[in-house]
Amino acid sequence: MAKVVYAPEADDDLESIVDYIARDKPQAARDWLMELRTTCETIATQPGVGEERKGFGISGCKSFSVGQYVIFF
Questions:
Q1: Domain extents for the chain?
Q2: Were both Cys, which of 13, 50, 52, 70 would link to 64 (CB 3.0–4.6 Å)?
Q3: What are phi and psi of 45, to 5 degrees?
Q4: What is the CA 60 to chain-centroid distance, rounded?
Q5: In whole angstroms, how far apart are CA 11 and each of 33, 36, 56, 59, 61?
Q6: Using an 8 Å Cβ cutoff, are 67 and 56 in contact?
Q7: What is the spatial distance between Cα 15 and Cα 19, in angstroms, rounded to a whole number?
Q8: 64 by DSSP, 3-state: which?
């Protein structure tokens, strides 16, 4: 099984987003983080998913949306 590894910057972003959402809706913040992490696990096991992204200077860069947020991998 593929292992999901989050860049330190991504972890910082996730923490900031969850903290922001949790100010008004703690359960929504937990649900959102669970959805995002589940999506990342799915991406790791199904490498064909996602939209190829060009123009980032990284060969093979893809993205996948979770609500209004975008995961790059």
A1: 8-72
A2: 50
A3: -95, -10
A4: 17
A5: 11, 12, 21, 23, 19
A6: no
A7: 6
A8: strand
**Helix ranges, 1-73 (H):** 8-22, 26-45
What pTM did the predictor assign?
Answer: 0.80
Token code pair at residue 73: 């991998």
State how far the Cα of 40 lies from the Cα of 36, in Å rounded to an integer.
6
Structure-block tokens of residue 42? 């799915």
Calculate Rg over the CA atoms of the chain: 13
Distance CA 73, CA 52 (A): 10
Angle, helices 26-45 vs 8-22, to 10°: value is 150
Residues 42 and 51 sit within 8 Å (Cβ to Cβ): no
63, 50 contact by CB (below 8 A):
yes
Distance CA 32, CA 21 (A): 9
